[in-house]
Design brief:
The chain has 376 residues and is mainly alpha-helical. It has a domain of 160 residues. It is built from 13 helices and three strands; from the N terminus they run H-H-H-H-H-H-E-E-E-H-H-H-H-H-H-H. The protein has a three-stranded antiparallel β-sheet. Helix 4 runs antiparallel to helix 6, helix 7 crosses helix 12 and helix 11 crosses helix 13. The protein starts with a helix and ends in a 5-residue tail after the last helix. The N terminus is likely disordered.
Length: 376
């Protein structure tokens, strides 16, 4: 068995030539598959066996018809000769069964394998191939393990050599590393101090803006501006000398909505006038420009009042952020989601010496000049 397993059954089957026979996987062999060439050879053998048996049976019965005819001819000599030939053919060519392995032709001594024998031979051949494949895979596995072990030993030797060099380099660079650590520590301490100062400055700026009610005023004015932007000039529903005086029952839903959208933020701005840093007289004038339901306010006056209020808020905001450093202002913008910026650099938010009212009026005149609507 050892010799049989040691030799490649692909090469020894049917007289060699295994080099041209494709190899199958172990799983294919266990599933009962054989290479196509081997299957063809075994099928050819089975066909030859069947053909040999058919031919032997034909030879055995070749004088049967003659013997029957001779019996009917009333010729005893002819009948006796025919029977003798038939018996001789039967004795010489009738296959004799040899257990489950097959048959033997008496006259020639030729062995003819049975289908069961072919199946057993096929199973035995598959078993040989399975054993050979298992042995080959085991040898391959051991060879792979040996190669892996060699590589691991070589890697360990290389790692040991590199570790020695790394240790030497680490000792040589220790002083440099310690110096860098000390420098980084000093930088981190300075950064922490700067961050603390920045946080304090941002908090102070936020407190100043909130105290002046800048965020609430900005939201209120922005809401009114959003309403005005929805409609072209002269097309604002519910606003006009006649439209503003109509009772609610005669107003459309859109007119009522526009008046509510304008009046609500206006009430907020009036209540927060202290944050605008304007006098009571100036606020009264602005309120008069805004008007309200039943006052006969026209659209042009309303838009002028909104622009006036925006200019006042911008001027007041610029004064509030004028003293903040660029870093402080940038940090506040990032945290609050705003986009405040110094006009012309830090400290140049407003024209020198102007109050918030004066600055707002100046910006209003500049805007008219830019549009070409400034009276000459």
């Amino acid at each position: 068995m050892a010799d049989e397993i040691g030799r490649d059954p692909f090469d020894t089957m049917y007289g060699g030539g295994g080099g041209a026979i494709p190899r199958l996987t172990l799983a294919d062999l266990i599933a009962g598959k054989l290479p196509p060439e081997v299957e063809q050879k075994m099928a050819a053998e089975a066909l030859r066996s069947k053909a040999t048996l058919d031919e032997a049976r034909q030879n055995a019965n070749q004088y049967g018809d003659l013997a029957v005819i001779a019996q009917l001819s009333n010729n005893p000599a002819l009948a006796s000769a025919a029977n003798m030939l038939d018996k001789r053919a039967q004795a010489q060519y009738t296959p004799e069964k040899l257990g489950t392995q097959g048959f033997v032709i008496p006259g020639t001594g030729e062995f003819v394998a049975s289908p069961m024998y072919h199946d057993e031979k096929r199973a035995a051949q598959i078993e040989k191939m399975v054993q050979f494949q298992q042995l080959q895979e085991e040898l391959n596995r051991r060879a792979a393990e040996a190669e892996q072990g060699r590589r691991e030993r070589a890697a360990a030797q290389q790692q040991t050599a590199e570790l020695g060099l790394s240790l030497k380099a680490a000792i040589a660079n220790q002083a440099t590393t310690e110096k860098k650590y000390e420098a980084d520590l000093r930088a981190a301490n300075k950064s922490a101090t700067d961050e603390k100062t920045l946080n304090k400055n941002v908090t102070n700026l936020s407190t100043a803006l909130n105290k002046a009610q800048q965020p609430q005023l900005e939201e209120a004015i922005s809401n009114i501006e959003a309403v005005l932007k929805k409609y072209p000039e002269g097309k604002l529903p519910g606003v006009g000398r006649f439209e503003s005086r109509k009772p609610s029952m005669f107003q459309t839903d859109e007119e009522q909505q526009v008046q509510a959208d304008i009046q609500g933020p206006m009430n907020i701005m009036t209540a927060m006038r202290s944050g605008m840093a304007v006098s009571d007289q100036e606020m009264k004038r602005i309120v008069a420009e805004f008007g309200g339901k039943g006052t006969g306010m026209d659209e042009k006056t309303l838009r002028h009042g909104v622009a006036r209020m925006r200019a006042l808020l911008n001027a007041n905001t610029k004064n509030l952020i004028a003293g903040a450093s660029p870093d402080t202002l940038a940090a506040y913008n990032e945290r609050a989601g705003t986009n405040f910026a110094h006009a012309g650099g830090a400290g140049a938010a407003t024209d020198s010496g102007l109050t918030a009212d004066q600055q707002a009026r100046l910006e209003e005149l500049r805007a008219k000049k830019a549009k070409g609507t400034l009276d000459q």
